[in-house]
Structure formats: C-alpha cells, structure tokens
Amino acid sequence: MNRVYNFSAGPSMLPLPVLEKAAAEMVCYGESGMSVMEMSHRSPDYEAIIQDAEAMLRRLMNIPENYKVLFLQGGASTQFAAVPLNLIKRTGKADYVVSGQFSGKAFKEAQKLGYDVKCIATTKDDNFSHVPVVTRDMIRPDAAYLHICFNNTIYGTKYSYIPDTGDIPLVADLSSCIISEPIDVSRFGVIYAGAQKNMAPAGLTLVIVREDLLDYAEEKMPTMLEWKTMAENGSMYNTPPCYTIYMAKLVYEWILNLGGLTVMQEMNLKKAALLYDYLDSQDYYIAPVAKESRSIMNVTFVTGDADLDKKFASEAGKAGLKNLKGHRSVGGMRASIYNAMPYEGVEALVAFMKEFAANNPKA
Ligand SMILES: *Cc1c(COP(=O)(O)O)cnc(C)c1O
C-alpha cells in the first residue's frame, strides 16, 4: 500500500528516511545482536544512543552550555504541573498568557495546585485567532516566570516574536514547533515539548532548562517531576523512553544532514507560503487566523459551512490526504504541515482544495 499524506496534528508524519532506517535497524542494531527496544538503558550501546541524541539536538538548536537537556515521559501535559512545581518557589507567584487550549490547561493546572498565578493576557474573546501582544510592563515584577505556548496547535497561531521578559524567566511550550526553525534558546528559561508533533513517536517529552533554574523545586516534589533529579541522572533516574529517544536521534540526524534548522525553516516557509498564498487568493475558503499570528506548522481554514467542511475532510481522506478535520473543539479544517510533510503533500492539498471548490459551489 502507498503511504498517504498525513496532515494529523499529532502523532504525525515522520520523515520516510527515518522510518526506513529504523526499519532496517529494528531487529539488530549495529553489532549488538538485538533491537534497541530490547536493550538495557545502562548498556554501552544505549548510552551512546542517548548521548548522541543529546549532542545532535544541542548542535541542531545551538543550545548553550548552561542549559540541561532532559528526555522525559508524561507528555507536555505533565509539564503543565512540573513547571510550577519546579519554579514557583523562586518568588511564590507566576504569570501566564492564555492563547489557546493548551496554554489554558497549563494555567488551570497551576491554579489547581493552589498557586498564585495570574493570566496577564488572553485572546479568548477573539476565538484565539491571534496571539496577544505581551510586553514587559504587563508581567508582575516578582513573577517567578512567564508561561506561554509558542505555537498554538489547535488554532494555528504562533508568536512572531519572543516576548521580552527582562530578568523574568520565559517558559515556553514548543510542542508543535520545536526544531521547525532556528530559535534563540538563550531567550528562554525553560523550553518543553511533547515529541509526537515534530520530533519522534509519542512517549517522549523534551525539557531544556537553564541550570540556575534547577534549585527551586518544592520540598514535597514527586521525584519523577523534579528536573534537577533528572538532570543529575542524565535523564536516567528511571528507565527513559529508550526507543522513542532513539527515533528522535534519527530525526535530529536527518535534519542535520539536510543542513540544519535554517534549511528546515526554508522548507517549512515554502510549504506554508504555498498554502497561505492560495488561501489569500480566493474566497471559497476562509483562513480565520490574523496574518501576523499565522503558524507555519498548523494551518486552519473553513468553508463557512459545517456540512461542506465535513464533506471536505471526508473526500480529502479518500484522495489520500488524511486527518484534515479540525480539532473537535473548533471544527473546520486543519492541515498540520510539520517538518516531515513533503512539499508535494501541500501541492496535492492545494490541488484538491481547488477541485473541491469547483465541484461544490456554495448555495
Ligand atoms: C499536543 C500538545 C500538548 C499536549 O501534549 P501531550 O504530549 O499530549 O501531553 C501540549 N501543548 C501543545 C502546544 C501541544 O501541541
């Protein structure tokens, strides 16, 4: 059977060369005589894999020396709790920007833990069709951190700038845009991301944390959520998600071989431009996101007619363009065009959109 173009928001497409390499190595890895899935995480073969994964990611993202890279479990959602539990003791309070569903969940999780957290900006009243403007004077001067979600997967919005937080650590959920373009890691205190959008299969959560922020964990901290413990143990306090880390390593290697994040960004911009240029050139489909907040990873659009939207997703699926239905909370369509989506996939989508518009005139 042929592979389809899978526009799923996550888990999502992985680069074909990565899948093929994993397949070739699946039963016997190198000279080990076993699969990576069967290896002790303490074995020399596996130690080399996790160390290479970290080294490659550091090279790819140009991560400064004074940042720790952690390969964890529990998804980005677990970090919604881990962030305040690791950081809030710095000053006792924290600020949040709510720009969509995930940042809303992160805010609620910190509230649930009983902390003094404040939502300093939200675009909820505009249906999250853009991200808020965030300036330094909006943040409480004694906030332990400011939390943002950099790319809003469900709504298809993204910050076009990194908010200036001065000395206040910026904590960002980068789940759906990590390694899609170069980013200045030094502007952030903490970056975290679930791997299943743009990095690897599900099961791995990446945390990149500045070393001086490891000293504020709560006393009664669950050990598994404590970044410092994980950092001191090279992400191996317990069994790490071994195979998923191996897959992430293959993805990092694939991007490095392409030329790194600058090349990746060029490819992603080209794909996104193809789709947005088409959306801007016609009036059958509507792109609800404000231009300055457009994501290059998740592109949302609607016909304006819920039945047509449904028909679109269903017929596209039959044409080999899968998972274009928007998130269940917003409806419409969403094309997730992460790193692994080839340009040809977006070309096929635009061709299908034209055909569908011609065949389904609106009443
Ligand atoms: C998918 C996603 C999450 C949730 O990730 P899990 O790994 O399923 O917990 C959080 N934030 C963003 C931005 C996401 O895209």
Placed side by side, the strands forming the largest sheet appear as 2-10-9-8-5-3-4
Bound molecules: pyridoxal-5'-phosphate
What do the pLDDT scores average to?
97
Count the E strands: 13
Task: State the order of secondary-structure elements, H for helix, E for strand.
Answer: EHHEHEHEEEEEEEHHHEHEEH
Short description:
This protein has 363 residues and is α/β, with parallel strands linked by helices.
List the helices and strands and how they pair.
Layout: E1 5-6, H1 16-25, H2 44-61, E2 67-72, H3 75-87, E3 93-98, H4 101-112, E4 116-122, E5 146-149, E6 151-152, E7 157-158, E8 170-173, E9 190-194, E10 205-210, H5 227-232, H6 242-258, H7 261-280, E11 298-301, H8 306-318, E12 321-322, E13 333-336, H9 343-359
Parallel strand pairs: 1-12, 3-4, 3-5, 5-8, 8-9
Antiparallel strand pairs: 2-10, 6-7, 9-10, 11-13
Helix pairs in contact: 1-6, 2-6, 3-4, 7-9
Bound molecules: pyridoxal-5'-phosphate.
Pyridoxal-5'-phosphate is lined by residues 10, 75-77, 102, 149, 153, 173, 175-176, 194, 197.
Account of the protein in words:
This protein has 363 residues and is an alpha/beta fold. The protein is built from 9 helices and 13 strands. α1 (16-25) packs across α6 (242-258), α2 (44-61) packs across α6 and α3 (75-87) packs across α4 (101-112). The longest helix is centred in the last third of the chain and has 20 residues, at 261-280. The protein is globular. The chain starts with a strand and ends with a helix. Pyridoxal-5'-phosphate (PLP) is lined by residues 10, 75-77, 102, 149, 153, 173, 175-176, 194, 197.
